[in-house]
Amino acid sequence: MKAKDLSRRDFVKTTGAVGAGLLIGFHIPWLQGCAGAAQLPAEGGMQPNAWIRIDPAGFVHVVYDDHEMGQGSSTGFLMMVCDELEADWSKIVWEPVPTDPSNWVRGISTGGSTTIRLGWAPLRNAAAQAREVLREAAALRWEVDGSECVAKEHQITHASSGRSLGYGELAEEAATLHVPDDPPKKSHEDYWLIGHSTDRLDLPDKVTGKTEFGMDLRLPGMLFASVSRPPAYQGGIRSFDDSAARAVHGVVDVFEVEGGIAVVARDTWSAFKGREALEVDWDPGPFADQSSETLKARGRALAGQPGDVQREEGDFAGGIAQAAQVVDASYDTHFLDHVPMETLNATAWVRGDRVEVWCPTQAATSGQRMAARIAGVPEENVVFNSMLAGGGFGRRLNSDDTEFAVKVAMKVDAPVQVVWTREDTFAHGFYRPYTHQTMRAGLDAEGWPVAWLHRIYGQPPRGTTTGGAANPPYTLPNFLCDNHLEDWGIPIGPWRSVGNTQTCFAVESFMDECAHAAGVDPLVYKRRLMEDADPRLLNCVSMVAERAEWGREMGERQGQGIAAWTCFGSWGAMVAEVTVAPEGTVKVDRVVAVMDHGIIVNPEAVRSQVEGAIVLALTATLKAEVHIEKGAAVESNFHNHPLLTIREMPSVEVHFVESTEVPGGVGEPPIPPPPPAVCNAIFAATGVRIRELPVDKELLKIS
Question: Which of 182, 207, 232 is the last residue of a domain?
Answer without folding.
Answer: 207
